[in-house]
């Protein structure tokens, strides 16, 4: 079909506009109008306050520029995003913890509540907050031999309801409950079988192409009708989130600042560091 051909990456040698922040870059293809938002905070796109602020402003910029769609991906070759930056939670004071959590909420609502067609080209591991971003999108293509999932219970912590919303939108209730209580990280292959991702792809280029094709399926649909229909599906979760968002920050701060939770974080960090030195 014509519009799908136009969207093929290889065929799109047309000018692109570039916008960037310290830890994100955005390329908007002038022909397709689709924006590719790349996360670039080496080594693992862990989510600290600055990164989350950059991500939020890029998402709103794409939305305000009237792009035709948004594709989220990573500039890192094997990690999509490692989730919240544990270094920024460990030994942090209450104000810092509150700011971090507020910014995570802000990014989630910007992406989950976006009226644009959104897709994730998951070119690496996507645990915890990485999975949160991917599941806030409407479509996911993922590289093999990676993991994705909400592993909070494995870390002895509870993901609040809004953080599970994307998961619950995608997975059947029974499967979502089991995966969340197990804190399961799915391999790419398991994620496809469960329906957590839509496609397995062999390269980042193929992931981007699949995402473009997905966004292309809306080419002949009225954008406002599309957007309002999408948001009707998400309205209940968004409304529930808005009601509890301040209390949710307080709950997070109170939990994350407890000495025993700080100890878990410290041990977890140490293990991560030991593993990376091997
Ligand atoms: C962990 C306890 C949290 C306790 C919180 C308490 C209360 C909160 C209440 C509710 C919160 C619920 C929500 C939580 C959302 C989250 O996102 S928590 C973060 C969870 N993330 C993870 O568990 C992922 C950990 N990382 C990995 O599994 C691997 O790094 C990877 C992503 C699979 C990549 O592996 P790879 O081999 O490529 O890289 P390395 O492991 O060698 O890592 C390189 C480098 O990066 C550092 N690093 C990795 N992840 C993080 C991170 N999330 N934050 C900070 N730093 C991270 C790693 O230590 C290495 O550093 P280096 O040794 O200095 O090179």
UniProtKB/TrEMBL annotation:
Catalytic activity entry: (3Z)-dodecenoyl-CoA = (2E)-dodecenoyl-CoA; (3Z)-octenoyl-CoA = (2E)-octenoyl-CoA; (3Z)-decenoyl-CoA = (2E)-decenoyl-CoA; (2E)-tetradecenoyl-CoA = (3Z)-tetradecenoyl-CoA
Gene3D superfamilies noted in UniProt: 2-enoyl-CoA Hydratase, Chain A, domain 1, 6.10.250.170
Name of the protein in question: Enoyl-CoA delta isomerase 1, mitochondrial
Superkingdom of the organism of origin: Eukaryota
The UniProt record lists the keyword Glycoprotein: no
Species, as recorded: Drosophila ananassae
Main location: mitochondrion
SUPFAM superfamilies, sorted: ClpP/crotonase (SSF52096)
GO BP annotations, alphabetical order: fatty acid beta-oxidation
Pathway(s) of this molecule: Lipid metabolism; fatty acid beta-oxidation
A GO cellular-component term linked to this record: mitochondrial matrix
UniProt GO molecular function: delta(3)-delta(2)-enoyl-CoA isomerase activity
Subunit composition and interactions: Homotrimer.
Entry-linked CDD domains: crotonase-like
Pfam families: ECH_1
Places the protein is found: Mitochondrion matrix
Record's signal peptide: none
Record keywords: Acetylation, Fatty acid metabolism, Isomerase, Lipid metabolism, Mitochondrion, Transit peptide
Role summary: Key enzyme of fatty acid beta-oxidation. Able to isomerize both 3-cis (3Z) and 3-trans (3E) double bonds into the 2-trans (2E) form in a range of enoyl-CoA species, with a preference for (3Z)-enoyl-CoAs over (3E)-enoyl-CoAs. The catalytic efficiency of this enzyme is not affected by the fatty acyl chain length.
């Amino acid at each position: 079909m014509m519009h799908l051909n136009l969207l093929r990456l290889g065929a799109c040698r047309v000018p692109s506009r570039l916008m960037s922040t310290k830890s994100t870059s955005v390329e908007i293809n002038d022909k397709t109008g689709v924006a590719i938002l790349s996360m670039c905070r080496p080594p693992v796109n862990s989510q600290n306050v600055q990164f989350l602020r950059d991500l939020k402003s890029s998402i709103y910029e794409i939305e305000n520029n009237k792009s035709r769609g948004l594709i989220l991906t990573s500039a890192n070759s094997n990690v999509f995003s490692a989730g919240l930056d544990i270094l920024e939670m460990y030994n942090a004071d209450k104000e810092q913890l509150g700011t971090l959590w507020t910014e995570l909420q802000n990014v989630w609502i910007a992406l989950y509540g976006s009226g644009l067609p959104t897709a994730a080209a998951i070119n690496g591991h996507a645990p915890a907050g990485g999975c949160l971003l991917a599941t806030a999108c409407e479509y996911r293509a993922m590289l093999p031999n990676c993991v994705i999932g909400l592993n909070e219970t494995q870390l002895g912590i509870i993901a609040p309801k809004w953080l599970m919303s994307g998961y619950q939108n995608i997975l059947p209730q029974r499967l979502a409950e089991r995966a969340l209580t197990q804190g399961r990280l799915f391999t790419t292959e398991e994620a496809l079988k469960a329906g957590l991702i839509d496609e397995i792809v062999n390269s980042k280029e193929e992931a981007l192409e699949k995402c473009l094709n997905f966004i292309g399926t809306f080419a002949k649909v009225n954008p406002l009708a599309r957007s309002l229909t999408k948001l009707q599906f998400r309205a209940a979760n968004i409304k529930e989130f808005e009601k509890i968002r301040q209390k949710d920050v307080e709950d997070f701060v109170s939990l994350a600042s407890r000495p025993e939770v700080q100890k878990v974080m410290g041990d977890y960090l140490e293990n991560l560091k030991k593993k990376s030195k091997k």
